[in-house]
Amino acid sequence: MSFLALRASLRKAPLSAARASRALRTPTFRKYSTEVPPQKSNTALFAGLGAAAVGGIAFYVYTSNSNAAKEAGTAVRSGVQSAKAAANFVPSKEDYQKVYNRIAEVMDEAADKDYDDGSYGPVFLRLAWHSSGTYDKESGTGGSNYATMRFEPESLHGANAGLHVAREVMEGIKKEYPWISYGDLWTLGGVCAIQEMGGPKIPWRPGRIDGFAAQVTPDGRLPDGAQGAAHLRNIFYRMGFNDQEIVALSGAHALGRCHRDRSGFDGPWTFSPVTVSNEYYRLLLEEKWVWRKWDGPKQLQDKNSKSLMMLPSDYALIQDKSMKKWVDAYAKDQDLWFNDFSDVISRLFELGVPTSQFVSSDKWVIKSTDEQ
């Protein structure tokens, strides 16, 4: 057995314990249960940097004052110079696999630091999600292309509270692999989190470039957990998603927990917050949810154990007829959800990235650690 496979099996041990605990709590508990296309030349990555730099200069000249435009132009020229200097190294799929493997290793380091439930995976996924979910299809702004959460005020937006943890951990990986863009690193981190915590394969490809502070997105583009179905439609329709895709993406709440000192909300959604499963949907339907009596924001808790929580935006999924039918479907069929979730989150991670920037016309399937 390889080191990576051994580490993967050790990671899954506590997950099995969590599942067993859930099984004892309720008899209705269910256990969780291609070949990559030939590598194409990705010299276009560096050509894309140059093309994006030209477009970036035009953007700043149009939207900024003369000083900002001058500063941006200098930064763009510096970026192009760096790309030329790095042109002797054209990263291959194998190089990105190495970055993935390193992310998987770092995910486990959370256990040594007593972070949350022993994994950085959930916060890595949230970073990838929030850096991509700012996309506006009407203006063509936002999305994962420029990794603008590196800058204020976007880094300080309420929906991004606590994501400094993920960005700081990712910064250490960026120093080890300086050739990868932040957008590629963050979204690859989301892919790694899903795959390493028992989820489906997430097709992914590199090609995002790093932008500048002037390209930060306005506040209010990410979901507010205190809102209902109308708000969810406003947020997700703006990205180009429909009701079914809203529900499919919401299943990511199987992972992680809310923190009082970040969002104001508190607690995990499921009994195993480091395992990707359809338990989020099953719990929404099968548990009795009551409003929590506390001094925090309005949220629900399960009546039996009082250890789980749901946000008003989660509960809205079973109050809305169009959305509830998909909650029902995913609660009954985890494979169906895995398939739909894989498709929609893969598209989410590519929002805002011009097709011409990607280094391959086909998406890649990165191997999980237990496949190596």
CATH superfamily (homologous) name: Peroxidase, domain 2
Indicate the CATH topology. Answer: Peroxidase, domain 2
The number of domains: 1
Uncertain residue ranges: 12-71
Report strand %: under 5%
Which architecture name does CATH use? Orthogonal Bundle
The CATH class is Mainly Alpha
The largest sheet has its strands arranged as: 3-4-5
The number of distinct β-strands equals 5
Question: Portion of residues in helices?
Answer: 40-55%
Structural class by SSE content? mainly alpha
Distance between the termini: 9 Å
The largest β sheet comes out as:
3 strands, antiparallel
Query: Radius of gyration over alpha carbons?
Result: 21 Å
Structure characterization notes:
The chain has 372 residues and is mostly helical. The protein has one domain (3-11, 85-371): Peroxidase, domain 2. 50% of the residues lie in helices and 3% in strands. It is built from 13 helices and 5 strands. The strands form 2 sheets. It has a 3-stranded antiparallel sheet with strand order 3-4-5. It has a two-stranded antiparallel sheet with strand order 1-2. A hairpin with an 8-residue loop joins strand 3 and strand 4 (300-302). The chain is globular. It starts with a helix and ends in a 24-residue tail after the last helix. The relative contact order is 0.16. Mean pLDDT is 84; it is low at 12-71.
